[in-house]
Amino acid sequence: MSVTIDSAAAAPTVRKPPWYRSLFVQLLVAIVAGIVVGACWPGFGAELKPLADGFIKLIKMVIAPIIFCTVVLGIAHVGDMKAVGRIGVKALIYFEVVTTFALLFGLVVGNLVKPGAGFDIDPQTLATGAERIAKKTGNGELPHTVDFLLNIIPASVVSAFAENALLQVLFFAVLFGLALAKFGEHGPPVILEGIDHIGRIFFTIIGWIMRLAPLGAFGAMAYIVGQYGLSALGSYGKLIACCYLAALLFLAILAVVARVFAGVNLWKFVKYIKDELFLALGTASTEVVLPRIMIKLSEAGCSKATTGLVVPTGYSFNLDGATLYLSICVLFLAQALGVDLSLWEQLTAVGVLMLTSKGMAGVPGSSFLALSATITAIGHGSIPVAAVALLLGADRIMDSMRVTVNLLGNCVATFVVAKWEGQLDTERMRKVLDGEDVPPLADADPNSERIRDAPVSATLS
């Protein structure tokens, strides 16, 4: 006797959650509610900042161990020291080319649009600007290039994790992964299995934390609107329009880069990561989506080693949105004060920003510090450093622009480097972005809502 079970009948149906359980819908509602609360009750909205701060701290709490586990497993599975070195070098080359282009592109847009024209600021009115900038930045300063590079090496392994220094954690993870890979087949599998299990535990924790994402986005948006108000949109309308126009044009260029060099349709990818993108926009932070973005990129065909190396490094070396914003702001300040910067002075600004923008991650008020250093380096006496205070009213409104371009810029970088190194599964990437079913990865996200069980076919005799 034989019984055949029809595969179509036996295949489990995909259970789609109700629309109100969609993270995208919840974030959309939370962001709109935050804007309404901030606009109608600004005092109350400004007091909701702890909701956003608490959520961001919860995410940061687990970022370092997730990066460590992801990078170690990725490198250990590659097992090739040279391949890891090639990925790192190619990523740095890509970062430098794209960020330099972003700076030059910002200058071109700033010269054409002239966002500061018509402000006619009197330098004498900027007497308190230096004090305001010092308060905003906590009297801090950006690290010098040598200090920044030396700081990548942690004082100790424990301090790297304790201080949540992502580049230091990444540096140690690379060394640890290479050391494990060196053992090859004779290596202790119990260590790899242990790291794999620990990584799964932390991803499970991330899944729990993400349930609070709408609350964090609501608090962040209510605070921004309540604290800074919507009136700044009118005062800095031309600057805001210029920055967002530049961002849209730059994203169009990124779309071409993604298509030509990696075969990726950026619009489909945006729809694929819409939850993460909305969360980053709502909280004005790309760090909160770092773990989930690494999962999404791996599921879309990028190797774990490439994802683990490129994404965390890009958070310090590939801030496309920030560099675009800074170059436009240099011209805005000059134009607002009626100063005509020469081509040489503008190129000097680009040279300085190429260095200062690399040390911005994690430094309070880093954009103001980078602009202050740039204006000082230009050496134009008609532009006082205190003029940077003119941007205090509009800086937070630019967060959405910076976050969007930074996030998508790093995702495109991961695809390009993976394709360049031959570690991009283009067939899987195409199916994932088209919404087709794909077999699960061996280390799939334990919090994934998708059910990817293969059809069942059995014969009993």
Automatic annotation (TrEMBL):
Where found, per UniProt? Answer: Cell membrane
Q: Where are the transmembrane segments?
A: 23-44, 56-79, 91-113, 152-180, 201-224, 236-262, 324-344, 368-392
Task: Output this protein's name.
Answer: C4-dicarboxylate transporter DctA
Q: Which NCBIfam families match?
A: PRK01663.1
| One of the Pfam families matching this protein, by short name | SDF
GO MF terms held by the record? fumarate transmembrane transporter activity; malate:proton symporter activity; succinate transmembrane transporter activity
Q: Which gene encodes it?
A: dctA
Give membrane topology per the record.
Answer: Multi-pass membrane protein
Q: Which UniProt keywords apply?
A: Cell membrane, Membrane, Symport, Transmembrane, Transmembrane helix, Transport
| InterPro entries, sorted | Na-dicarboxylate_symporter, Na-dicarboxylate_symporter_CS, Na:dicarbo_symporter_sf
Q: Where is this region: Disordered?
A: 436-461
Query: Could you state one GO biological process linked to this protein?
Result: L-aspartate transmembrane transport
Q: Which GO terms describe its cellular component?
A: plasma membrane
